Inverse folding.
């Protein structure tokens, strides 16, 4: 207590003494435990998730994330449609990086069939994946900036994201849920002059990322709120099953593109950014650097993409070309069988994983030899990340919850399957 | 896998390699915590990164006894490889010992598996539904749970002329 020259032994009378209430003001705030419901759709929680937060003053004593508001029965839906009809469902797992989910699922199915896709299709898959990695990270970083009080970084991020969405729309016909992959390759080839357009968008994008970086990385408010908050150490992160940027921010150098290269990732030069402290600031920095590396991969892929077919020439797997369907009985038959019965995937099981924008996207698929999957399990990268939120945030301040929730980038669609 | 077999021979029921080259080990339910602890703590293996857990309902498969298979995916950063474990449990007593004290990441995945398949994890600190609400009856991902079964928490208003869900048989 400050010294006001009051005698210590004199107990103040609140009715007569002018300073009587001062001790109350300066003493520790007497609080009751308070339960706050954040969500189900709170502006700071991306996706519909309800957080039951128990507060003691401003300190979070206990937090219980309750998910499932978006539950759509992804697995059950997939188990009742043909393999190809699963693709729209996989798109909607993560609506910010639909192509990655799409291609990841196809990768697992192709592994189960034992199918090698054409070279050009592999390149286009890398290009699509990296474009969607950029849009995902841009949304995450932009929203983080916005929720820390900066509107400009969000606008910059959205400008680049719009450019990329336009390129995606030219390539696939849709902005978000593209359904672009097919078993054995991809849906259609790159449009005329598209590569040049992408290069121009990337040029502009590099400027935008640089501006965003300049606005946020040394911003006092942003740094104060993100540095040292939401900390998780490497050991705990591994124990919880963290992957992707959230794990790399803890200093663990694990990227599936490097560890087990798929498609043609081993032909490109790129670095895997690694953080140190595992806090929100490091997760943000890792994402910024990953975007630069994605641009690097995109440029190399666009420069070296070979000519050739984009889907396998096997009518048991890919739909025959339209002239064949209209002109020959074999074409009609294969088309009919593929549409009505689906691709006949031989019985067996497979676990396969790719590096999606938020981490390891794993697929465990069981086939019983018919045209429909018997079991589709998705290991969503956001699920373990969200599971660790109570561990990260308990005992910290309520205000720390916002940047933590931003930078872990939990996606409702995949977490709630 | 060879090391597991050598170290804990009585724990492993079956080992096989699937068509895509993934190595699998089917272990006894009782021995699962021991196997997992060995995989995690052995200095040469270090399967520390927790992948996921899920179950397969083998009701319609040719080989369907016991009915459920609980599958585990662990990853070793040191060796750069996955390990796939399976535990088979019957329909009458779908109980598996929990791994949540060994891997903290297992906590939520076990809740998810319980929620969808009704497989109980013995010793789990907080085994309750995670995606569905408490009052939900049955386990939706079991193969004998009807695709069109609906249990709305709030009564649904009748909607006409909307085709619901996958399949071709129209409105329920």
């Amino acid at each position: 207590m400050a010294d006001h020259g009051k005698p210590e032994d004199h107990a103040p009378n609140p009715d007569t003494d002018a300073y009587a209430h001062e001790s109350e003001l300066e003493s520790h705030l007497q609080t009751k435990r308070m339960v706050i419901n954040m969500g189900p759709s709170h502006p700071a929680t991306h996706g519909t998730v309800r957080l039951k937060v128990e507060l003691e003053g401003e300190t979070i004593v206990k937090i219980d994330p309750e998910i499932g508001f978006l539950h759509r029965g992804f697995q059950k839906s997939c188990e009742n449609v043909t393999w190809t009809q699963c693709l729209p469902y996989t798109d909607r797992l993560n609506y910010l990086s639909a192509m990655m989910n799409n291609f990841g699922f196809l990768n697992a199915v192709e592994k189960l069939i034992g199918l090698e896709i054409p070279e050009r299709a592999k390149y286009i898959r890398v290009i699509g994946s990296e474009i969607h990695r950029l849009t995902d990270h841009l949304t995450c970083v932009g929203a983080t900036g916005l929720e820390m009080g900066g509107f400009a970084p969000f606008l910059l991020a959205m400008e680049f994201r719009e450019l990329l969405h336009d390129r995606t729309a030219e390539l696939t016909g849709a902005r978000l849920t593209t359904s672009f992959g097919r078993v054995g390759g991809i849906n259609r080839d790159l449009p005329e002059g598209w590569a040049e357009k992408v290069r121009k968008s990337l040029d502009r994008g590099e400027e935008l990322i640089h501006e965003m970086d300049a606005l946020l990385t040394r911003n006092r408010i942003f740094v104060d709120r993100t540095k040292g908050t939401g900390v998780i150490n490497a050991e705990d992160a591994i124990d919880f099953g963290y992957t992707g940027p959230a794990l790399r921010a803890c200093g663990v150098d694990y990227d599936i593109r490097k560890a087990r290269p798929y498609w043609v990732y081993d032909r490109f030069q790129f670095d895997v950014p690694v953080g140190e402290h595992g806090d929100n600031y490091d997760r943000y920095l890792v994402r910024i650097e990953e975007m630069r590396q994605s641009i690097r991969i995109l440029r190399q892929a666009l420069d070296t993409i070979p000519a050739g077919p984009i889907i396998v020439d096997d009518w048991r797997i890919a739909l025959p070309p339209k002239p064949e369907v209209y002109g020959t009985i074999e074409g009609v038959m294969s088309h009919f069988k593929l549409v009505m019965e689906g691709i006949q995937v031989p019985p067996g099981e497979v676990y396969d994983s790719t590096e999606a924008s938020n981490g390891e996207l794993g697929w465990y698929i069981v086939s019983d030899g018919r045209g429909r999957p018997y079991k589709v399990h998705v290991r969503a990268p956001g699920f373990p990340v969200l599971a660790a939120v109570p561990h990260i945030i308990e005992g910290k301040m309520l205000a720390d919850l916002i940047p933590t929730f931003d930078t872990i980038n939990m996606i409702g669609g995949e977490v709630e399957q | 896998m060879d090391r597991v077999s050598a170290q804990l021979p009585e724990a492993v029921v079956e080992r096989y390699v699937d068509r895509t080259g993934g190595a699998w080990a089917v272990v006894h339910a009782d021995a699962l915590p021991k196997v997992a602890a060995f995989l995690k703590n052995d200095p040469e293996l270090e399967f520390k990164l927790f992948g996921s857990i899920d179950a397969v309902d083998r009701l319609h498969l040719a080989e369907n006894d016991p009915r459920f298979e609980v599958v585990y995916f662990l990853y070793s950063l040191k060796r750069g490889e996955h390990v796939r474990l399976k535990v088979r449990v019957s329909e009458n007593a779908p109980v598996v010992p929990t791994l949540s004290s060994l891997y903290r990441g297992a906590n939520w995945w076990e809740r998810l598996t319980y929620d969808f398949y009704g497989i109980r994890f013995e010793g789990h600190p907080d085994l309750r539904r995670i995606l569905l609400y408490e009052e939900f009856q049955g386990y939706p991902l079991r193969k004998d749970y009807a695709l069109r079964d609906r249990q709305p928490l709030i009564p649904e208003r009748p909607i006409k002329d909307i085709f619901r869900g996958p399949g071709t048989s129209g409105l329920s």
